[in-house]
Amino acid sequence: MTQEYTIGEKVYKTDGFGSWSIEDMLMYFKKHGVMRVSDLHIKVGVPPAFRVDGNLSKIKGQAVTKEIAEKLIYPLLDEKKLAEYKAHNNIDCSYHYADLQFRINVFVDNDGPVAAIRALGFDIPKLEDIGFPNDVYKDIVKLQNGLVLLTGITGAGKSTTIASFLDRISEVKACRIISVEDPIEYLLKQKNAVVSQREVGRDVPSFAAGLKAMMREDPDIIFVGEMRDAETVAMTLMAAETGHLVFSTLHTRDVTGTITRILDYFPSTRHDEVSNQLSLGLAYVISQKLIPKKDGTGRLVCMEILNNSYACANIIRTGKIEQLYSQLQTKTKNKPDEKMVTFEHHLAKLVKTGKLDLLEAQKWVNDSKCFIDSMNTMTI
Predict the structure, then answer these.
(1) Terminal CA-to-CA distance of the chain, rounded, Å?
(2) C-alpha 189: how far from its chain's center?
(3) Which of 8, 159, 202, 325 has the fewest CB atoms within 10 Å around its CB?
(4) Helix/strand/coil for 199
(5) What is the fold of 12-121?
(6) Local confidence pLDDT in tens for the 380 residues of the chain
(7) In 3-state terms, what secondary structure has residue 277?
């Protein structure tokens, strides 16, 4: 933090609530809970806006000016980050306040500085409270190796689910957990495991560099914050193949899209090689969405889960990705080599049990026909 900008300076005038500082805005997350209030957007020309239950809600007050934006945003950046932002007009970083952790991106648009601030609680939810459609999480915690992918759009709760897995593993296993993240989101406590969390740009220059170094650091469990390029994808797959349990994320909306996205990182001449590697190393794909509850008190997770059984591995190896969906539809029994589910089935279950509104659920389906079939055939 620089001397010029302070977190407690009340620089933004609201209508009826006095002047707010960026500290007051961060306290809003704590007051209402990060499960409901997920983000804060600060942009020149409009009032600051919170994302509440997935929808933007502007603070009632004046439009932010360039000067106000700087006084709200810059206290969240240390001198090094502020200098980097001014040099590149973009910066990713994290910020600790009270018992909350914030993931921050600051950038420049037509009007001036902009900040997207994501709130993450220090209290990591238990796996039982995430909202899995079955108890597949128990099997994942017991894994010794393989790749577990959490996918979904930005804000779908991927980081929270992975943090819950790592926290549970740390409780039940005496193992070595090492992560490379950009930035670090949830701070993992040292429990039965020994945990090291490294941040891109601060501790390592890139995901690939962090992974390369990690291979000499004796990890049992690896968390790669995001697979962003071919080199990181290749090294992540290699880590899973060589006896490590690896967690990572991708911005894809469903299981089949996830497999296709991984292959698309590579030239077509390498697709057979990568398909074979993926079929051997992949353990699970969990694609998730957060959907507003029927009673308006927050959001629920809806999941699509692929368990990479022998049949699924063969489909991936032979490149017949479109056949995976039928596996998700049929291999749903409570057996270790099944426990799969489609988005449509989980959505229908949440509607049938009164947790989601039907009209709201219909906005989120990937396949309307399959959702209707699930609604017609499901009995609760």
Answers:
(1) 55
(2) 19
(3) 8
(4) strand
(5) Beta-Lactamase (3.30.450)
(6) 444 789 999 999 999 899 999 999 999 998 888 778 989 999 999 999 999 988 899 999 999 999 999 999 999 999 989 999 999 999 988 898 887 889 899 999 999 999 999 988 778 999 999 999 999 999 999 999 999 999 999 889 999 999 999 999 999 999 999 999 988 888 899 999 999 999 988 899 999 999 999 989 999 999 999 999 999 999 999 999 999 999 999 999 999 999 999 999 999 999 999 999 999 999 999 999 999 999 988 899 999 999 999 999 999 999 999 999 999 999 999 998 999 999 999 999 999 999 999 999 999 999 999 999 999 998 87
(7) helix
H or E, element range at 26: helix 22-32
Range 127-341: architecture per CATH: 3-Layer(aba) Sandwich (3.40)
Q: Supply 178's token pair.
A: 């090492």
- What is the C-alpha to C-alpha distance for residues 333 and 335, in angstroms, rounded to an integer? 5
Type of residue numbered 41: H
Q: Where are the domains of the chain?
A: 12-121, 127-341
